[in-house]
Amino acid sequence: MFCRGCRNLWSVSSVQRSIRRLPPPPVTKCRSISCLPAVWSEPRTSTGEGDKVLNLDTVPSWSVDPRTQEWRPGSNWNYDKELFALARRLGHDLADLPRLQTALTHRSALTRQPAQGEEGQGAPDVPPEHNSRLSFLGKTLVQYFVTEHLLKVYPKMEADSLGDIAKFLLNDPALAKCTDHLGITDLIVSQKRLDDPSKQKIIVRALLATVACLHLDKGPSAARKFVTEFITSKMAGVDLHEVIKLQHPRHILRSILSSLGMPRAESRLLKETGRATHFPTFVVGVYSGERLLGEGCGTSLKRAEREAIVAALHKHFATQLAAVSVPLKDYDREGDIDFFQPSSNEDDKAED
Amino acid sequence: MAHLAPMNNGCVRYICQLKRLTLQYCKNGGSSRGIREFLSETVAQFAKENPHLTVYVRQRPGRHPRIVAEFLSGNSRVVSVKNMSVEEVAGHISLLRTSSGIKTVKLAKPWHTDNPSIQGNWTPFLYK
């Protein structure tokens, strides 16, 4: 048999076939790997957090809701009840439900033709507004609250690294995962199929619009609480080494040391093994005067030195104010916000 | 490093991971007796106490009763409550309500440790 996929001769014994008088098989492709069908699209688990526990495979398949002609997951649930439950879960009041409904309505849902039989009970009344304005406000709010939080929690960190952390918390896959896990995705009213990875923006917009909704209805402290509880809480357990990418660590270290008035950085080889082998290990420490700032190991002296400088910077950046660790409280008072506190004038690298 | 709950639930705020319960029962079957009693007595109170859950009650004539739970993580779990008493049904529902929504996993070993090596692993610098 000649395979139409990989153009190889198929390993079926024609002798056996003729002995058993079997009909020729109907398929025309062999079973080699090159002829298997293409890999199915990935389920919508996002981000590099490596969270193997979560499994969105079992999200029920999408289908068109016959009453409203919209793409929906699941089968027999009542939209209004689910909306009510979402409001209670996220802390909205009952009076806010219309605005919450607006926050979940994507623009594409308003451009559809009215379907017949629209007066079925339980069909969501599509409000005449969509969530673009709310999500526009929400995006800025979320960025502001996250920035405020990071500035407060990491007083010694450079702005580039803060930007890296903010990007880690606020990129589309991360926010989409957040939205899924709050149960918001099921209730988004939209004409587009949301299980497509390119439609993550719609999901993220719904979340941002929900934050804006809270802000408008209950004030900035409620919105800040939401962002702190659901978005910045993802910082717990995250290794900053993976999140912060330091572009020029040597320059950063030099500028920090000179601003603190400490002696220039010097790297010294501490330990080594296997120098003449294929896999040497060097342990290099970076010193400022007599003080060891950081240690790093690597397969070459240069790499080890870079690791040492990066370790020193991470130790410096990751100093947090003791009072601001998770669980976070007392953020509701506006007067608590002052990022640029007068520096406490000891060598911050003095606490090792 | 400590193991965190999925999506860091509980680190700052805890939200109940159960989002939807569907109680399916048969009006006449004997195996549904317990859940019928639960439905006539307790379910309204339960739904009122848990406004973040939606509880659906569906009839499935001629079949054994069951509870389908859907979690925020997208997983679902089906619990057969055939021939159970009211207390057992309530117990299962309470178990679902406090569940984390992770799929039930068969543990390969009955133990877990973050420090498998007592004296420390060998490194090239151990005896230098």
TrEMBL record, chain A:
CDD domains: DSRM_MRPL3_like, RIBOc. Pfam families: DSRM_MRPL44 (PF22892), RM44_endonuclase (PF22935). Residues 110-130 are annotated as: Disordered. Signal peptide: none annotated. Its main location: mitochondrion. GO terms for cellular component: microprocessor complex; mitochondrial large ribosomal subunit. InterPro entries: dsRBD_dom, Ribosomal_mL44_DSRM_fung, Ribosomal_mL44_DSRM_metazoa, RM44_endonuclase, RNase_III_dom, RNase_III_sf. One of its GO terms (molecular function) is ribonuclease III activity. PROSITE patterns: DS_RBD (PS50137), RNASE_3_2 (PS50142). Residues 248-318 form the DRBM domain. Keywords: Mitochondrion, Ribonucleoprotein, Ribosomal protein, RNA-binding, Transit peptide. SUPFAM superfamilies: dsRNA-binding domain-like, RNase III domain-like. Residues 83-219 form the RNase III domain. GO terms for biological process: mitochondrial translational elongation; RNA processing. Gene3D superfamilies: 3.30.160.20, Ribonuclease III domain (1.10.1520.10). It is found in: Mitochondrion. Belongs to the ribonuclease III family. Mitochondrion-specific ribosomal protein mL44 subfamily. PANTHER family: LARGE RIBOSOMAL SUBUNIT PROTEIN ML44, RIBONUCLEASE III. This is Large ribosomal subunit protein mL44. It comes from Geodia barretti.
TrEMBL record, chain B:
GO terms for biological process: mitochondrial translation. It is found in: Mitochondrion. Residues 27-100 form the Ribosomal protein/NADH dehydrogenase domain. GO terms for cellular component: mitochondrial large ribosomal subunit. Its main location: mitochondrion. It comes from the Eukaryota. One of its GO terms (molecular function) is structural constituent of ribosome. Keywords: Mitochondrion, Ribonucleoprotein, Ribosomal protein. SUPFAM superfamilies: Thioredoxin-like (SSF52833). InterPro entries: Ribosomal_mL43, Ribosomal_mL43/mS25/NADH_DH, Thioredoxin-like_sf. Gene3D superfamilies: Glutaredoxin (3.40.30.10). Belongs to the mitochondrion-specific ribosomal protein mL43 family. This is Large ribosomal subunit protein mL43.
